Every structure is written in C-alpha cells, then in structure tokens.
Amino acid sequence: MGKSEIDVDNLRGATPVISVRLFGTFEIRRNGAVLTAADLGGCKPRHILEILLLNLGTPVSKARLVEILWGPRASSGAVATLESYVSGIRRAIQPGNTKTGPLRTANSGYVLDPQLVELDLSMFQQLLNEARHAAPAEAHTLSMQALEMAAEPLLGFELVADWAEEARLRHAAEKVAAQVLAAETAAFLDKPDLTISLAQSAVQSEPLNERAWTILVAGYEQAGLPVEGLSAYERCRRLFDRDLGCAPGPALQAAHLRLLRQRAEGNTELSEVLAALLYLGSGCTDPSAQSMPPRNPGACRRTPAGFSTRSCSRRWPSPFDRTGCSPSVGNVSALG
Fold first, then answer.
1. In angstroms, what is the C-alpha Rg of the chain?
2. Which of 12, 244, 232, 269 is nearest to 118 (CA)?
3. Whole-angstrom Cα distance, residue 295 to residue 258?
4. Closest-CA residue to 211 (of 324, 305, 320)
5. What is the DSSP code (8-state) at residue 37?
6. Max CA-CA distance within the chain?
7. Other beta carbons within 10 Å of 138
8. Domains located in the chain, CATH noted
9. I need a labelling partner for 301 at 20 to 30 A (CA). Which of 77, 93, 142, 159 fits?
10. Per-residue DSSP letters for 163-215?
11. How many other CB atoms sit within 10 Å of the CB of residue 281?
12. 285-303 per-position pLDDT tens digit
C-alpha cells in the first residue's frame, strides 16, 4: 500500500487545512497548492514552522524559539524578528485566515492546531500506537504502513541544526520499535524471511536492543536456518559481553539451545557432545539435559517458542528491556 493509499480518515477528527511532509522533501499542501521551503521566505521561517510541527499541539514560547534559533547570544531584537517571521508563515499557510488558521498565538508563544494539520510524523506515531494495541494480523499491517510512511529520513534536509538531529534520534528509536513489532508479528504470521529482514534492520540501528536480537534469532529458527541463527546469537553474545558485561537473557539463551539441537540433528557425535555439555551445564542435576527431545525431520519451519498459532491479541514475545540481560556466564556458542 503506497503512502497516498493509506486511509487516514480514522486518524483525524477534523478536515485538515494543511498537509505537511517532514519525511524526505519538505512540502506543504494547502487547498491543492504545493508550497516548498522557498515559499516560506527563507531558512529561519522554515525552521520555526518545523519546530512547531515537531511539537504539534504543544505551545512553544517565544523565548524558547529564540533560544533554539539564535542561541544564548541572541540580539535584543530577536523577538521582533521572530514575530515578523511568524507573520510571513501565516500569510503563506493560511492566507486571509491569520487568526483562526492552524498557526495560533498561545501562552506567549505559538502552537499549531493538530486538528487542522495533517503531519506525516504524527500519522506514523499514531499508526505505531494503534499497532501496539491491535491483534497480530492488524498490528502487522499497521506497523508496516508506519514503516512505509517513514521510509525516507526525517528532516533529511536539515543536516546541521542540533534540534533536527535530536528529533531524528527520537524518531530512530520509534522506527526501531516499529521494525521489531513488524518482525514479531511477521513471525506470528509465518513469514520468516520478512521477520529476518526487519529484525536485521532493527539490530543494525540499535545493536544493544535485546528484543530485536531475540526476534532475529527466532526468525532464523522459524526459517530452519540454525547455522545463521547460531551465528547471530554469537554476535549478540559477544556484543553484550563487551559493551554491557552480561550475557543475553533467558529467551535468547533458550532459542540458542533450540538452535544447537537443530544443528546437531543427524550428527550422532555432535549430538552426544551437546548432550554432555548440557548435562555439565545443568550441574549434573537435570536428567532431561542428557538427551534431546525428538523432532520431526521434515519440519524445517516451525513456530518459535513464545509464539502461538491460536488467534489472540498478544501472543508474540513480550518486550524485553534493551539492557535487561543475564549476568555473564559460560556459553556453548558453536559446535562443529
């Protein structure tokens, strides 16, 4: 589904006066007309509008805007200059409607009315929020729509402003959350290739995100790729040990053992080595560690532990804290 096809009717309670893009090329649409950055009268007016858009629905004081735009050494005439820029913005986005349009004066500052502004960043956030509370199939669709909407960089045309970089960092965390959710629900829907792709993107963006590593390893398990899964686990284990001083948490360790069992199937010597290691690791107190449960050799794809094939609203793995890992212990990282 393309960006133009996403149904946003249910995301809005009122007809917006302007529609704004912050992903990719900056663009404003008003009554069929397209306004670009040049139509706002320069970079400072554009920055003012972008800052207000990033705070959609929340007033930003004149003092705060002056601080962001000019820093602590702003001249005494900075407020007057700001007010002049805002007047120009109003003429551009709400001509003939300066008092009741989207851009309002409030609390010694300015605010954009969220009911009159359709912003792609807000739509992304709302799609992600709805996905978090939806059943798996719907959650997958919503999270994929959110990711499609955010395919291009946020404020990619503002490369030097600190406030823009801060906004990109906040959005990057939200995008990783959407990738992980989309990956988890893809696994629930038995789409391991998509699961792996989405999880790889999340891990690349946040290398210490344990939830992303968990669904990546689970995706390899579901796809019947134990070697790739063991390799991913080993990368995660080394990274966590180096940067956090701990080992992956229980869910990842359990997936690791299942992958070891997959890897050892059909290899009697390897299977015996694994059984011995598991026996020693259990302190010689758990008889079940001495043998591996039988598995259907023809089932190359299966639902990872923590997933359910029954219809329900939240059966994919529960969220893991990015640093909620176990104390560093010895690991059986690879065999053969």
1. 26
2. 12
3. 11
4. 320
5. G
6. 82
7. 14
8. 18-118 (1.10.10.10), 206-336 (no CATH)
9. 142
10. HHHHHHHHHHHHHHHHHHHHHHHHHHTT-HHHHHHHHHHHHHH-TT-HHHHHH
11. 15
12. 444 433 333 334 333 343 4
pLDDT digits (tens, 9 = 90+) for 115-134: 999 999 999 999 999 999 99
First to last CA, the chain: 45
* Amino acid, single-letter form, for residue 50: E
- Give the β-pairing of 109-112 and 103-106: antiparallel
Per the listing, tokens 């070891």 go with: 260
Rounded CA gap, 135 and 89, in Å?
Answer: 42
Measured CA to CA, the distance from residue 131 to residue 137 in angstroms comes to 10
Q: Can you list the positions of beta strands (E) in the chain?
A: 18-21, 27-30, 33-35, 60-61, 103-106, 109-112, 117-119, 246-247, 326-327
pTM for the model stands at 0.77
Torsion sign, CA atoms 62, 67, 69, 71: positive
Amino acid of residue 141 = T
CB 159 within 8 A of CB 191: no
